[in-house]
Write a structure and sequence with these properties.
The chain is mainly alpha-helical. The chain has five helices and three strands, in the order ααβααββα. Strands 1-3-2 form a three-stranded antiparallel beta sheet. Keywords: DNA-binding, Transcription, Transcription regulation. This is Transcriptional regulator, HxlR family.
């Protein structure tokens, strides 16, 4: 299977370094096992409380979820809303408009993952 990639600019050492640096920055912010899963869950469910989010993102511990939410909040992907007028205090998390800019990235990763899985299956069954 051959993919032809159209490049907007010629490949130079500087361009390559800039692209690699940009990809590194992106992966630093959204990389890892949980961040994209959390972002997707928040985008699909709207505002959501911590325990419900933990149930949706199966397998994540409370400590890891808390840390990931803090990182996502610092980077502008998640907003934490505290309803202190209620007893007990209710805390909800919502995805920001900025996190929605990842939609095309998430859809592209999803499509690539589906294609990759099919390619692996075909390779395994052909042998």
């Amino acid at each position: 299977m051959e993919n032809d990639i159209e490049l907007e600019e010629p490949i130079t050492k500087v361009n390559c370094q800039n692209h690699l640096s940009s990809v590194e920055d992106a992966l630093y912010v959204i990389g890892g096992k949980w961040k994209l899963k959390i972002i997707i869950a928040l985008q699909e469910h709207g505002s959501i409380r911590f325990n419900e989010l933990q149930r949706i993102v199966a397998g994540i511990s409370a400590r890891v979820l808390s840390n990931e939410l803090k990182d996502l909040e610092l980077n502008g992907f998640v907003k934490r809303i505290v309803h202190s007028e209620q007893t007990p205090v209710v805390v909800e998390y919502i995805s920001t408009d900025y996190s929605k800019t990842l939609k095309t990235v998430i859809m592209a990763l999803s499509e690539w993952g589906r294609t990759h899985k099919n390619n692996i299956r075909e390779d395994v069954f052909e042998k």
